[in-house]
Amino acid sequence: MKKYLKYTYAPIIVIAILTLMYSIVGIIPFGNVICTQGDNSIGGVSEGIYWLEILKGKANLFYSYDIGLGTNILSYMLFVGKFTPFNLFEIFFTTGNISGFWSLNLMLKAATMSLTAYIFFDKIFLKANNFYKTSFSVMYALSGYTFMNFGNTHFLEIAILFPLFILALKKMFDEDKCMCYIIILTTMLIFNFYISWMILFFIIFA
After folding, report:
1. Is the peptide bond before 29 cis (omega within 30 degrees of 0)?
2. Could you give the CA distance from residue 141 to residue 159 in angstroms, rounded to a whole number?
3. CA 187, CA 38: separation in Å to the nearest integer?
4. Are 81 and 192 in contact (CB under 8 A)?
5. What is the pLDDT of residues 4-27, one digit of tens each?
6. Conformational region of residue 176, where left means phi above 0, alpha means psi within -120 to 50, and beta covers everything else
7. Would you call 56 helix, strand, or coil by DSSP?
8. DSSP classification of residue 33
9. CA 103 distance to own-chain centroid
10. Helices and strands: H and E segment counts in the chain
């Protein structure tokens, strides 16, 4: 059990930093500032409310007649990356306090980013000091990409899976085992194909 304790350091530090940032800026639940910007301030609110209705069984996952003359909901929810474990936490919120979910969502995803980054550094840099592996994991989680997508957190799942994807790619070349690679790449495409196409270019040109 003690050997797994090192994997908790980076996520705890990330959560502590974000909690401090939330409290200073006054982001919900420490104030009234909402984690919405860009697209999220326009479409994210309605997407979140409709997804909450789906989770609670009050709306149709596949098609809706409430939007224009009717539209395909499933493809759109795939497009905006709703089919991830993180979005299941939204069921604990209501339409009135859904803004609180965005604050929690960013914190959980950033913490998970630091965890997968640490796993990568720990597997690749075997002799590196734990301090450096933890530090770089925190940097990865709190990078400019994360804060650029502060209001579009559905783009962060790919950053969460990317370190594991690189490990799976290395495993495929080193050990001629491709199952992990197939599973992780498929998961990335399901979670957010809008960003995953860049991973496909990475595979070809990297």
Report:
1. yes
2. 9
3. 26
4. yes
5. 889 999 999 999 999 999 999 888
6. left
7. coil
8. B
9. 13
10. 10, 2
Listed ranges 105-109, 151-155, 193-197; the one with the highest mean pLDDT: 105-109
C-alpha angle with apex 158: 120 to 83, nearest 5 degrees? 125
pLDDT tens digit sequence for 36-71: 665 665 666 677 777 778 888 887 778 777 766 777
Contact 28, 99 (CB under 8 A): yes
Q: Which two tokens stand for residue 119?
A: 């796993």
Q: In 3D, which of 167, 188, 156 has the Cα closest to residue 18?
A: 156
Q: Note the pTM of the prediction, 2 decimals.
A: 0.86
Taking the CA atoms of residue 108, residue 109, residue 110 and residue 111 in that order, the dihedral angle to the nearest 10 degrees is 50
Range 92-101 burial, b when 16+ CB lie within 10 A, else e: ebeeeebbbb
Between CA 159 and CA 182 the distance in angstroms is 17
Residue 101's Cα: distance from chain center in Å?
13
Residue with tokens 């989770």: 55
Which amino acid is present at 181?
A: Y
Q: Which residue has the tokens 């002799």?
A: 127
